[in-house]
Design brief:
This protein is an alpha/beta fold. Helix content is 46%, strand content 16%. It has a six-stranded parallel β-sheet, with helices on both faces. It has a four-stranded parallel β-sheet with strand order 6-5-7-8. Helix 3 packs across helix 4. The chain is globular and about 55 Å long.
Length: 287
């Protein structure tokens, strides 16, 4: 931790954002749009991805180790930009870090889905672990007990997103195959579809084209960014506009940590973030 960070007033500290790899950069992109004055510290646990195929116990252990690293760097808020980690470790993180705001991606997505649906039928696309664990079903039904939730595991979407195959025949064929249960569902069909993996927003156009205009798509990245802003406003932790990134160096406003493969992290991550990431500026760490 730098002496500058240690002495910084609470509101001027960075927001920590964590994911197993680069998918959480879609959340970071939404956070930058919603909170343009803020500084961010992003950690991608690239040495141990994917989390979606691992046990809940292992995911929780990895997630807490990554969160510990960010908390040790004096952040003012922790964003768990990973659906699998949010499902496995969010309660443990909130217990561990006391008053530090800890926000995951599942609760905001569930709230947005319940607000969007007209018929109470909601579909959730996610990794095997997220769908198998039923975290979205529990979160949605805690808000609307009468909601019907259809979980669809789409593991190949992660690979397509990372390879940049987000349009064309391959992406369309995979989307059609995965979404067949939704399209073949007996009426009333789901009218709301949650992108329950942070990789999936980059595939939103092909997903939307497959399900048609009658289905509203909920992007958990955008809903999470709105939840973070609301929490910072409530806690009076918003960074003063006078200290916005426009008046500070880019290095101070946005910093990256990765546990392996900084070149690949930068190359693939640039597509998810929508701006270039300099591999030489990514700090390699060991958890």
């Amino acid at each position: 931790m730098s002496s500058t960070a240690a002495l910084a007033p609470l509101a001027q500290r960075a927001i920590g954002v964590f994911d197993s790899g680069v998918g959480g950069l879609t959340v970071l992109r939404a956070l930058q749009a919603a909170l343009p004055a803020e500084h961010f510290l992003y950690l991608g646990d690239t040495a141990r991805l994917p989390y979606g195929t691992k046990s809940e116990h292992t995911v929780a252990r990895y997630a807490l180790q990554a969160a510990d690293e960010l908390v040790a760097r004096d952040i003012k808020c922790l964003v768990v930009a990973c659906n699998t980690a949010s499902a496995a470790a969010l309660p443990a993180m909130r217990d561990r870090y006391g008053e530090l705001p800890v926000i995951g991606v599942i609760e905001p997505g569930a709230r947005a889905a319940c607000q969007s649906t007209h018929n109470g039928h909601i579909a959730v696309l996610g990794t095997d672990s997220t769908v198998r664990g039923g975290a979205y079903t529990r979160a949605i039904q805690a808000i609307n007990p009468r909601a019907s939730v259809l979980g669809i595991a789409c593991p190949l979407f992660v690979a397509l997103a990372e390879e940049g195959w987000i349009e064309g025949e391959v992406a369309q064929a995979v989307a059609a195959r995965y979404l067949q249960p939704l399209l073949a569902q007996a009426l009333p069909a789901a009218d709301t579809l949650v992108l329950g993996c942070t990789h999936f927003p980059v595939l939103a156009p092909v997903i939307a084209a497959t399900v048609g205009k009658g289905v509203h798509i909920v992007d958990s990245a955008a809903t999470t960014a709105a939840a973070v802003r609301a929490e910072l406003e409530r806690a009076r932790l918003l960074r003063p506009a006078a200290t916005s990134p426009a008046a500070a160096s880019a290095a101070d406003a946005l910093q990256f940590l990765a546990t392996d493969g900084v070149e690949r992290f930068a190359a693939i991550g640039s597509r998810f973030l929508g701006q270039d990431i300099d591999a030489t500026a990514v700090e390699l760490i060991d958890l």
